[in-house]
Specification:
Layout: E1 7-11, E2 18-26, H1 30-38, E3 48-53, E4 59-68, E5 79-86, H2 88-99, E6 104-106, H3 111-118, H4 124-134, H5 139-149, H6 152-176, H7 188-206, H8 211-217, E7 219-224, H9 231-239, E8 257-263, E9 266-272, H10 282-297, E10 300-306, E11 319-324, E12 336-337, E13 343-346, H11 355-370, H12 381-400, H13 405-423, H14 429-436
Parallel strand pairs: 1-6, 7-9, 7-10, 10-11, 11-13
Antiparallel strand pairs: 1-2, 2-5, 3-4, 4-5, 8-9, 12-13
Length: about 450
């Protein structure tokens, strides 16, 4: 039995308890499920107040019920929603009543969206955009994900693929019907011209700096330095809450602590690491090793020292030197630029001196790092790889024209196939489980 021949149900709203919870049902048995619980089928797309009952006729809840006949529904098949009170007991009773109906089962993560994809309600780039929208932490991530969900990349890819197929048809017509009087003798020139235009467009998209991909992943900032210089205190100040233990005893932080920040709409992950020093304690040694490894993987390192120190370890990523505890010395030093690509700051993490200037610099760094993402088309490595494959095939097709029209036509087929994989139209079973498996249950 195919998955779409089965009827599924799941809660599609947040965790209980809540004021209202939404339970969705999708599949061929939707009408049976609604009738069994609500006593009758409400008019399509009209919120109807009905009393839900179990198989024994016992009341479950006073609910709003909506019915969306397929294919004009979110999943492309019959779909219903039960808007019930969000108590755990209510939901348990609804799930028990649905489970008792033959051929109904609980949905797997992402199964509603996968059915929408299977029924042509959205392509794979739009499904990825929906996943990004669900997991967006900042406003800029939300806007980027919404553009993908609305077909920013998918529409362009469909247009490119259609033009490639047209160019392929011109070349193959010249091969198959070269002796026919009603077929133009030269079909190669217009096809090559179209291919060159398409190649320039795709290479223009690929030539962007990957900033949309960066926005999806976020900027990683590691706080590093010797023990007892105030790294955890700075972490708590940036997070505006106590996320790390602060203690005068050296070596308190032994594992990696992460917190997600929203800096002017940009997603930033701040990492507090173990104090870097020589130690005989095997647990602290492991913490130091992890600290060095995480700092090397970060996009920016904030290296903290006491107010009278200015040393740091070598690193392959940008490093800002921060002198902490300036409240302990006379005259607070101001932040300066070292002139070597490094920024120097003087702060008091405990008292708050200099933190506004540091935060302003971090926001500016995030703006420079992400740049302008409003027009970015590519948000995932998968998308970039398939566009690169398409561009390479188009480049080969141009070079193959002089060697043989059959070779050029085959390269165009490869380019169209790559864009088909991008949209999820051909040969994508290997990635569907990965993509839809990241969705929450009920979506």
């Amino acid at each position: 039995m195919r998955l779409c021949d089965q009827t599924i149900f799941a809660q599609s709203s947040g965790r209980p308890p809540s004021a209202i919870a939404i339970v969705r049902v999708s599949g061929p048995q939707t009408v049976v499920a609604v009738t069994a619980l609500a006593g009758r089928l409400p008019p399509p797309r009209v919120a109807t107040r009905l009393l839900l009952r179990d198989a024994n006729g016992q009341p479950i809840d006073d609910a709003l019920v909506l019915y969306f006949p397929g294919p004009a529904s979110a999943t492309g098949e019959d779909l219903a929603e039960f808007h019930v009170h969000g108590g755990r007991a209510v939901l348990a009773s609804v799930f028990a009543a649905l489970s008792a109906i033959e051929n109904l089962r609980a949905a797997e993560p992402g199964e509603f969206t996968r059915r929408a994809f299977a029924h042509g309600k959205l392509d794979l780039t739009e499904a990825e955009g929906l996943d990004d929208l669900i997991h967006a932490d900042t406003d800029r991530q939300r806007r980027q994900a919404l553009r993908q969900l609305k077909g920013l990349l998918g529409d362009r890819a469909r247009d490119w693929r259609a033009q490639i197929i047209e160019a392929q048809a011109l070349i193959e017509a010249g091969i198959d019907f070269a002796d026919e009087g009603d077929v133009p003798s030269d079909m190669i020139a217009p096809a090559v011209s179209r291919i060159r235009t398409l190649l320039a467009e795709i290479e223009g998209v690929l030539g962007a700096e990957g900033r949309s991909e960066r926005l999806r992943e976020g900027l990683v900032v590691a706080i590093a330095g010797p023990p007892n210089v105030g790294k955890s205190t700075l972490m708590n100040q940036l997070a505006r809450r106590d996320v790390a233990i602060v203690s005068p005893q050296a070596g308190t932080t032994r594992d990696i602590i992460e917190v997600q920040l929203d800096l002017d709409g940009y997603p930033v992950t701040v990492i507090d690491t173990a104090g870097i020093r020589k130690t005989e304690d095997p647990v602290e040694q492991e913490g130091v090793r992890r600290a060095r490894a995480r700092a090397a993987e970060a996009d920016l390192v904030l290296w903290l020292n006491d107010c009278d120190e200015a040393s740091r370890e070598a690193s392959g990523v940008p490093v800002w030197l921060i002198r902490n505890k300036i409240d302990l010395i006379q005259g607070n030093p101001r932040a300066v630029n070292s002139g070597k690509g490094e920024r120097n700051f003087a702060i008091s993490a405990s008292r708050g001196d200099g933190l506004a200037e540091l935060m302003s610099a971090l926001v500016q760094h995030a703006q420079d790092y992400f740049g302008t993402t409003e027009g970015g088309l590519i948000t995932r490595v998968r998308q970039r790889k398939l566009l690169e494959d398409a561009a390479a095939s188009l480049q080969r097709a141009i070079g193959a024209v002089s060697e043989g029209e059959e070779l050029a036509a085959e390269d165009l087929r490869s380019a169209a196939h790559a864009l088909g994989r991008l949209l999820g139209q051909v040969d994508v079973e290997d990635v569907l489980e990965v993509i839809f498996g990241t969705f929450c249950i009920g979506k």
